[in-house]
Each structure stands twice: as structure tokens, then as C-alpha cells.
Amino acid sequence: MDDEGQLDPAVRSILDAARERGGAEGRVEVGVRSLADAFEQAERDGRVPVIAEVKPTSPTTQGTREDDPVELAAAMVEGGAAALSVLTEPDHFGGSPEFLERVRESVDVPVLRKDFLLHESQLDAVEADVVLLIARFLGEDLEPMLEAARERGFQVLVEVHTVAEAERAVEAGAEFVGVNNRDLGELEVDLETFERVAPELDGVTRVAESGIATRDDVERMRAAGADALLIGSAIMDGDVYENTRRLTQNEL
After folding, report:
1. Would you call 181 a catalytic residue per the annotation?
2. Is 55 a catalytic residue?
């Protein structure tokens, strides 16, 4: 893991909580819905492949959204989301494994578990179609965590922010790589991050994450090579259905 002194205090707090959070005693075996197929179906339907995020709150947003996550998920899917992301981190994002469980039972699209997973046992907390592994926080543990997730049946989205992390993700065998436009050192967003890192990602499905708020942002990321986009705040802030539709439909 990189020097934590370079991380924003809010991120250090999240990591401290993640270290203390245990996993399940048993081991999950997951039958998943294909994320690649969901992206391809969206393209065939004339939609931008978007993973819409059910995010009650976060350190970078104001306030908390208390809607039923199942209702939010349904609106996102109806609006055109190819897949969903559900926060399970409880202390800083207001999420829970129970939220994900309820959402996954209610929809027929792939569901990504968004959390800060540091230990193998944490993979067993809840079944999902995809889990997020953050290269910066796992360091040399990235490859064994990736293997452990796949042994359970999970698809894996490996998150990177730099060219070096992107190279490490590819070497570890990642199939889906998300480039986070938000620098976790300072929590600042720069869409140029994806434009800089994406060319180093050959042979993987490239997902642009963070800072995508407008149709111009969507088109910019797609032009830079994004196969899919992960969008949270821009969908959660306001009418979830209309926001999802605005950002996924190629023709309105």
C-alpha cells in the first residue's frame, strides 16, 4: 500500500475502519450475471453502458439520501443503467451488505459491490456479481485478492488512478479496469486522468469513474476510450430516473 501520509484524512479514516471490519465466517460461491454481456446489450440498445451507483452519502457529497435503495435501483434500471453499484461501506457512505442483498434480489442487471476490501474474508460478507478491488490500497496483495475473488465466482473491477497502477492491474490479470478520475490523495477530480491512463490499458474493459456529470463529460470519456462509465453523484442528486436517462441515452 502507498504511504498513507499522502492520503486525504477522510480516506485514511475509511481505511482504518475497513481494517477493523471483519468478513463472514463462511465462504460464498457466487453465480453471477455477466457484466460484459450487460455492457454489450446496452450498446446494442443504443445506450451508453453505465454503472449507476446507489450511494446514500459520501465524504465528497453533502447530506444523506434516505430513499429506499430498492426504489432507487429500480429507477436507475428503468432509466437505462446497464449495471448497478451499491455501497456496502457503513461508516462513511451509509451503505450495508443488506442494502446490496435487497437491491440484487430486485433487479436483473449485474450488481457491483463498492467497498474498501483489504482482507480475503471481507469478500464473503455478501454475494454480488462484481467486487471492487482498489490497486492503491492493496499493493502487492492485489493479485492474490483478485484470485481469491475469482475463486468465489466474482467478476472483479480493479480500480486504478495512475499509469503504474494500470500496468500492475493488467499484469495481475484484470479484465475490467476502472480509472478513478478522483485523486484519493487530495479528493480532487480531473477527467484528464482517464485520458492519460486509458491508453495503457490494452486488452481490458475500461471503465471511467468519478467526475462524470454532463453529456459532454460522457462523450469526452467515450472519445478517450471508455467502454463504460461508473456514475454516482450526478445520478443520485435529483431525479434518479431522469438523471440516468440523460446520461445513458444516445438519443433523447
Report:
1. no
2. yes
